[in-house]
Amino acid sequence: MNNKIWLSSPHMGGTEQKYVQEAFDTNWVAPLGPNVNGFEKDLENYIKEESKVACLASGTAAIHLALILSGVKLNEEVICQSMTFSASANPITYLGAKPIFVDSELDTWNICPIHLEDAIKGSIEKGKKPKAMIVVHLYGMPAKMDAIVAIAKKYEIILIEDAAEALGATYRGKNCGTFGDFGILSFNGNKIITTSGGGALVCKTDAMKQKAIFLATQARDNAPHYQHSEIGYNYRMSNIVAGIGRGQMEVLDQHVALRRKNNQFYRNLFKDVKGVTVFAEPTADFYSNHWLSCVVIDAEITGFTREDLRLQLEKENIEARPLWKPMHLQPVFKNCEYYGAKEAETLFEKGLCLPSGSNLTDEDRSRIAEAIMKLVK
Ligand SMILES: *Cc1c(COP(=O)(O)O)cnc(C)c1O
């Protein structure tokens, strides 16, 4: 059997172990230290816009803290893009708040500004303005931020950008994660850079970053003994993990370029295949990191479904995966409100994520092309 080709696997650059070794040599084996500070600085320099970054244990923890810092309370409503990974929505429920899910639009697969405004109006009519809204840059594709930021301003609702999949992506030249009141990043094992596990909260001010770090380290008051006036969390990033992050920052741009090259490969491969659309930027305003390359398959034209293609690839030991199943279709969220039509649902039915790692080799790409073409013909 051939080696397994993964959807997206960790890709080390080579200097990660140097930073980890430094942590051992200086005994900073703790959830603080020079690598944590260094990784934060690296991220701040990278995303610019004078953002401040707090490194955390996971992207999910970052969303949780963003919601707490937004002041979301029991029974309040938070709007969330339906088409996403469950980690975007789960932290809403940690606070006893209620997610309201919103459909996607077809250009970017991200939250539809029209349905978004409907959802806000719907909540206001019930006498409950949503406290915050979570917008996702799915698969590294920037959402329509001009329209979304305008809506957030118009209704004075806190904007949280889930940029877990979008580090290195930009909209009109500005980095994803820096448009909202908060942005969140993830360094999980399959993301564009990985620290094995980890995340970050992007804040507008240093004061907000310090508040996030305070909550992430058990909310200790300033006293010689352990004193607490607020509920805290154990969400800070380890200095070992941050060392991997510092090494990964040195290859981030390279990883973005390689993932974009994969997208180009799929666009060429499917160029003459009717009924298969490779997901790509709608206009030059959008610069995707193409974290995952995805296709939409119209089975009536192709004669095969996305599941046929997935199984064909699986037979050849190549991993592919359906798009995220929308949250409003998930059993766990079945009682939540939903605004929209069937765009996200249709994408889920027809869409497939293809191997997209920055570590794919030419040989891997040949194997993928061969496997796909067996079905396409
Ligand atoms: C990965 C991911 C997260 C969660 O990040 P973790 O670091 O795994 O907790 C959140 N949202 C989206 C869209 C993701 O892809």
Distance between the termini: 24 Å
How are the strands of the largest sheet arranged?
Answer: 1-9-8-5-4-2-3-14
How many β-strands, per DSSP?
A: 15
Average pLDDT score:
97
Reading the helices and strands in chain order gives: HHEHEHEHEHEEEEEHHHEEEHHEEHEH
The proportion of residues in beta strands is 15-25%
- Which ions and ligands are bound to the chains? pyridoxal-5'-phosphate
Instruction: Identify the CATH architecture of the largest domain.
Output: 3-Layer(aba) Sandwich
Total number of domains: 2
Query: Which overall shape is indicated by the principal axes computed on the Cα atoms?
Result: globular
Per CATH, the class of the largest domain reads: Alpha Beta
- Structural class by SSE content: alpha/beta
Q: Outline the low-pLDDT stretches.
A: none
Helix content: 25-40%
Largest sheet report = 8 strands, mixed
Gyration radius, rounded? 21 Å
CATH topology of the largest domain: Aspartate Aminotransferase, domain 2
Helix segment count?
13
Mind explaining what this structure looks like?
The protein has 377 residues and is an alpha/beta fold. The protein has 13 helices and 15 strands. The protein folds into two domains: 235 residues, Type I PLP-dependent aspartate aminotransferase-like (Major domain) (Aspartate Aminotransferase, domain 2, 3-Layer(aba) Sandwich); 124 residues, Aspartate Aminotransferase, domain 1, CATH 3.90.1150. Helix content is 37%, strand content 15%. The relative contact order is 0.18. The structure holds pyridoxal-5'-phosphate. Pyridoxal-5'-phosphate binds next to helix 3. One of its GO terms (molecular function) is pyridoxal phosphate binding. Belongs to the DegT/DnrJ/EryC1 family.
